[in-house]
Automatic annotation (TrEMBL):
ATP binds at K7, I8, E9, Q10, R11, R135, I136, G137, Y138, G139, G140, G141, F142, Y143. Keywords: ATP-binding, Ligase, Magnesium, Metal-binding, Nucleotide-binding. This is 5-formyltetrahydrofolate cyclo-ligase. It catalyses: (6S)-5-formyl-5,6,7,8-tetrahydrofolate + ATP = (6R)-5,10-methenyltetrahydrofolate + ADP + phosphate. GO terms for molecular function: 5-formyltetrahydrofolate cyclo-ligase activity; ATP binding; metal ion binding. Its cofactor is Mg(2+).
Length: 188
């Protein structure tokens, strides 16, 4: 099987495994992931780039609310074109986000923007990860284009244990992460 086909199959299988996790189990896993993230985020410099979960993705909203409660700068991405994200500073997840592209909550376009190079840490969603930082997204290349633009930011993949594979079938353009956090462990 070629790498392209393997990637398609890994993506499909990981999505099926994630979808099979009951909502209450996913919520407990998200809380545990938040606990694992706390020491990693600690005193990290620069703004945090988060994401607004969609569908059965792991929600990091509690982490983002805690970050905001500590009066620390938070950015979220907004789709501005095919494979292109713009980062906006948000101060209130309930007021500053609207349903945007692909049905994902994203910042209002009137909010201040931030250069990706100014981000200190990125929480990265994905369909499937491996324990070495390999990542497969949804196929649009949004994060593959964004992550190299974040310079020295620490990139942390967020997923459920069921989304892990031994080794993702990554292409050369697939941007890796520095660590992967699940409800079970932190992999670096």
């Amino acid at each position: 099987m070629d790498a392209g086909q393997q990637k398609i199959e890994q993506r499909l299988a990981a999505k099926e495994r994630r979808a099979a996790v009951p909502g209450d189990v996913r919520a407990r896993a998200a809380a545990r992931i938040g606990e694992r993230l706390d020491p990693l985020l600690g005193a990290r410099p620069g703004p945090l780039l988060g994401y607004a979960a969609t569908g059965d993705e792991v929600s990091v909203d509690a982490v983002l609310r805690g970050w905001l409660a500590a009066a620390r700068p938070l950015a979220l991405p907004r789709v501005v074109g095919p494979g292109d994200l713009q980062l906006h500073l948000v101060t209130d997840l309930d007021v500053d986000l609207v349903v945007g592209a692909y049905g994902i909550r994203e910042p209002r376009d009137v909010l201040p923007t931030i250069d990706p190079r100014d981000v200190g840490t990125v929480l990265v969603p994905g369909v499937c990860f491996d324990r070495h930082g390999g990542r497969i997204g949804y196929g649009g290349g949004f994060y593959d284009r964004l992550l190299p633009r974040t310079g020295a930011a620490v990139r942390i993949g967020i997923c459920l244990e069921v989304q892990l594979v031994d080794r993702v079938a990554a292409d050369p353009h697939d941007a890796p992460v520095d660590a992967v956090v699940t409800e079970g462990d932190v992999y670096r």
